[in-house]
Structures are given as C-alpha cells and as structure tokens.
Specification:
Blueprint lengths: L1 H21 L2 E7 L5 H15 L4 E7 L3 H9 L5 E5 L8 E17 L13 E6 L5 H8 L4 H4 L1 E6 L4 H7 L4 E6 L3 H8 L12 E3 L5 H7 L3 E6 L5 E2 L2 E2 L4 E13 L4 H18 L24 H7 L6 H29 L4 H4 L2 H13 L3 H23 L6 H27 L2 H8 L1
Parallel strand pairs: 1-2, 1-3, 5-6, 5-7
Antiparallel strand pairs: 3-12, 4-7, 4-8, 4-12, 9-12, 10-11
Helix pairs in contact: 1-11, 1-15, 2-9, 9-10, 11-15, 13-14, 13-15, 14-15
C-alpha cells in the first residue's frame, strides 16, 4: 500500500513537471489594418509557430484597426497587439519586434504646380485609411499653416482613391505605407490611365519633416530614395524628404518576461522561414532599447536582443535540482518500505547500488569519471533488464522505481557536467584538497 502511494506520488509529480515545462504557452494577439494585411501577416506567423512546434504560440484576433488592437491590449483582452507607433493608449505596451515602417506619401498628378507641401494652395488632400491617419495629419498641421493656404483634408476609402482624383473631389492623396513592392503597386493604381486622366504621379516633399518630428516624436524624418514610386522616368527624380512611423508587435508589460524571451527568439526564426513569402519581414528589426524610447522595450525581448537569454537548464536548474532531490527522497522511502515489508529488494534488485551512484556523481572531478559512472549505470540497467527478460527480475513496481532512479541519475550527470565545464580544473582540485 505504502509503495503504491509513493509510486503514484512520484509519477504524478513527474507528469506535472512535464506538463509545466513542455506544454506550449498560448498568447492572444490583436491585429488589424484598413487593408487587412496586418491580420494576414500575423496569422501566417501564428500558423508557422504552430507547425514548427514552438513553445509560445499565438491566437490571432481581428481588431480591425491599430487603435482597436491597442484598446484590446490595454483592456486585458489581448496579451499582444500589432500597432502603429502613433496609436494612442499604449502606456502599458512594451515593444517586442519592430515589424516595419510606414512612410508618408503625398501624391498628386504630375501636372500639379506644387513640389513641396508648403507650396500647396486651395487644395483638398484625400486621406487614404483616414481612421488611422488623423495623428499624422494633426502632426503636419502643427507646422504647416493649412488654414491660411486653404488646404483641406478629406477621408477617402482605399477603393475610391483613383475615382476621387478623376472626379476632382481631391487634388492629391495622402497614404502611409511600407515601401515594399506590394504596397507601391497598390499606390500606383491610383494613377492608372483609367483613373487619374492618364497622368503620372508626383510626390510632394515634406520639406519641414524634421520640425514635424520634433513636435510629434512618433515620427521621424526620412528620405524616400530616388525612383521609389517609378523607375523610368524616376519618381521621385531625386531623394525626397518625408516622414515615417514604425509598426510594432507589442506586449502588455505584465506578460511574463521568460515567455516573451522565448517568443522573441521564435519570431526571429519564423521571420527567416517566411521571408520569401512575405518580403515585408525583411524590414523587421530589433526595437529601440533606449531607456527613453517612446515605446519601451519589454524586459523579456531585451533579454533576447542583449544575448542574455538562459538555456532551459539555466532557467529551471533550481527547480529541476530540488525536484531531483524530492525524487531521490521518495526512492529512499520506497527502499525502506520494501525492506520493512520483507520484499528482499537488496537481494532481488539493483535499485540500491544504482541509487548510491548518485554520491559518486556529485563527487566526480572530471568528465572521464562521469563517463565511467555512466558505464556502470548502463551495466546495472542492462543486467536488470536481462534478468527481467528471463523471468528472474523485478516486478513492474520495481522496474518503475528503477526508471525513476535512472532518470534522477541522468539529471545529476547533466548538472555535474555543466558545473565541471564552468569551473576551472585548478579550482576543483583546491576544493577537493
């Protein structure tokens, strides 16, 4: 009876430890954008984490917009969110990965007289994706006197950009997009012959981008490379000053740091795997680790980027060590119980000498000694298995105890090897003396 209870306790604790250390962790991530691309990319990453057997996995929720994703994060409805840097309500957000940058493109037909934003007069600018862009428009208004120049802004749906230009409802278009071929192809469609009277586009320079970035620090001045929008003739014809804003994967600051460390490493691996299918991931990078960053980095992500992440053994060394001691104590109880009940374990089983090898492992001073002890363990187990195969060995309960003892010794061997590799030989000799 005693033996059965102890064996059940040992097996139960082993099952719990396995569940604790090996089971995947699931985090909810909110994502959304006007064109749906944020949801598509996040879903692809989540699917890849699942198929690769990652420890941390993602459950994707469609938030519709960056603002809604931020609300879900702040309200505790999501652990993670894909957000644009100028989204409000990010006081509890901590950056995990810089996904890409959105660049402000103000485009007009090539026949437009203005080349710079300050030159625009009596103009209506159509804002594509208006639900997310008010902060960017407001940032421009802090530097440019649009009221005096009679420059107005009007929200325009993505699918209505070309027709709005054609009908004269707007004279220019304002978009914030990553500079990837997929997005630039969509932008060019606003100026196809069937849409904008056959005119080629031109980009309007935000010549005071530096001043805008000073008053609205989520933005930074950025030079759009020559020929970005079109190659021949090049549009722009030379590098052109504009603004850009970062897109992040952020986590609530309360999410466990070790979990975020694991997730960050897995995201870097996934980025490599999905790069050919989603070229935008080439722009993914480490977020700012500066203490004064507008969105501070999550401690778990910082651990990964700084190269301070711990291995499984380092992270759970203490827990595994004390678990090993507990298992050892329970095995001792099993031995005592069997002796008390007269089961004759000393003569019938090699459990006791196997268990006593633990002391030799703890005192080993070289890997050669550990190799020799490992050979002894193998010999004992092989002999016991041979006896069992012939019908002379231990019963199933004894074999379960042998398995537990071998498992404990295996951990002790691994733990001792780790210590030997970290401790200089001279210091080990001194400790012995």
């Amino acid at each position: 009876m005693i033996v059965g209870v102890v064996a059940a306790a040992v097996i139960g604790s082993g099952w719990f430890a396995y569940r604790y250390f090996a089971n995947p962790v699931f985090l909810t991530v909110a994502a959304g954008s006007a064109d749906g691309e944020a949801l598509v990319l996040t879903s692809a990453i989540a699917a890849r984490l699942t198929t690769s057997g990652a420890h941390v996995r993602l459950k994707v929720v469609d938030a519709g917009t960056s603002a809604k994703a931020a609300e879900m994060l702040a309200g505790g409805k999501a652990h993670l969110a894909v957000v644009r840097g100028d989204t409000g309500g990010l006081s509890d957000a901590r950056s995990v990965l810089l996904l890409t940058h959105g660049v402000v493109l103000i485009m007009a037909p090539s026949s437009a007289n203005a080349d710079r934003l300050a030159d625009l007069r009596n103009t209506t600018i159509g804002v594509i994706g208006g639900a997310i862009n008010p902060p960017a428009v407001e940032a421009l208004k802090q530097v440019y006197p649009f009221d005096r120049a009679n420059v107005r802004f009007k929200d325009v749906a993505i699918g209505e950009g070309a027709s709005a230009l054609l009908s004269g409802q707007v004279h220019a278009l304002f978009v914030v997009v990553p500079l990837t071929e997929k997005y630039l192809a969509k932008v060019r469609q606003f100026f196809q012959p069937s849409g904008a009277k056959g005119s080629a586009p031109k980009l309007i320079e935000i010549e005071s981008a530096g001043a805008v970035a000073n008053v609205a620090q989520y933005y930074e001045s950025y030079d759009i490379p020559k020929g970005t929008l079109r190659g021949a003739p090049p549009v722009p014809s030379d590098d052109l000053t504009s603004l850009r804003v970062a897109f992040y994967l952020v986590a609530n600051k309360s999410v466990n740091a070790d979990t975020i460390t694991d997730l960050t490493q897995e995201l870097v691996d996934v980025r490599r795997d999905l790069l050919s299918q989603y070229p935008i991931l080439a722009q993914a990078a480490e977020p700012s680790t500066d203490t004064d960053a507008l969105i501070p980095i999550h401690p778990g992500a910082a651990t990964y980027y700084n190269g301070n992440q711990q291995s499984f053994l380092d992270r759970y060394d203490d827990k595994l060590y004390y678990t090993s001691l507990l298992i050892g104590s329970l095995i001792s109880v099993i031995v005592a119980a069997w002796r008390f009940t007269g089961s004759g374990i000393a003569s019938q089983s090699m459990l006791e000498p196997l268990y006593e090898l633990g002391n030799e492992i703890k005192g080993a001073q070289s890997e050669a000694e550990l190799d020799e002890i490992e050979r002894k363990i193998d010999d004992i187990l092989k002999a016991e298995l041979a006896r069992n195969a012939n019908g002379d060995g231990a019963d199933s309960t004894d074999m379960a105890a042998l398995g537990l003892a071998a498992q404990r010794l295996q951990y002790l061997m691994s733990h001792r090897r780790t210590l030997l590799r970290k401790t200089p030989a001279t210091k080990r000799v001194a400790e012995v003396n």
